[in-house]
Backbone:
């Protein structure tokens, strides 16, 4: 197996398929789960999608061509599986049950300040989750997953200008939603 000293930015050199899958899960598992949650808004479904993503990765590792990074490849699989789920009859007939727990951790602030910051982040993220999918996905990928516009364009198979437009329109829609619920701040 891998030690804590393993270079997390590159896959192990001559690893077996099982070792490579383990590395991919350790490296990208949390990000896949977060991304799936942003689409599906339900933790259990996000966990199911996460498992499906890595099962799919395992079955297709021998076909990975290194034209993209593992990160982009896994994100694209995740996005596609989430979109498939959103189109499915099952998903359309499920009620949302889970509430979002803070994605970001606060630094060394007072307990009161941490609570206020957490509530603010959760309120903003909740508004992001209420955006239409085409705006929500680029906002999540750009701001929360910190992907570049180029990486998002490749992942979603869209033009970079389309991504920029969706980011701009998403920010505008988010600003309107935030003003509507009384959350003030910069987007």
Residues:
């Amino acid at each position: 197996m891998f030690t804590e000293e393993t270079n997390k930015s590159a896959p192990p050199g001559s690893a077996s398929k099982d070792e490579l899958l383990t590395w991919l899960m350790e490296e990208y598992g949390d990000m896949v789960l977060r991304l799936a949650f942003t689409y599906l808004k339900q933790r259990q479904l996000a966990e199911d999608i996460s498992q499906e993503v890595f099962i799919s990765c395992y079955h297709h590792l021998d076909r990975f061509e290194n034209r993209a990074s593992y990160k982009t490849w896994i994100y694209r699989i995740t996005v596609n599986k989430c979109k498939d789920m959103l189109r499915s009859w099952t998903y359309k007939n499920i009620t949302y049950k889970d509430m979002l727990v803070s994605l970001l951790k606060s630094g060394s602030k007072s307990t009161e300040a941490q609570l206020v910051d957490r509530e603010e982040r959760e309120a903003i993220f909740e508004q992001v989750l209420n955006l239409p999918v085409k705006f929500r996905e680029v906002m999540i990928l750009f701001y929360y997953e910190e992907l570049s516009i180029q990486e998002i364009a490749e992942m979603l198979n869209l033009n970079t200008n389309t991504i920029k437009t969706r980011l701009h329109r998403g920010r505008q829609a988010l600003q309107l939603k935030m003003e509507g619920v009384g959350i003030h701040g910069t987007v």
Notes: The first helix runs from residue 17 to 40. Confidence is low (pLDDT under 50) at residues 1-8, 95-108. The helical segments are 17-40, 43-60, 70-87, 89-92, 111-129, 133-144, 149-156, 160-180.
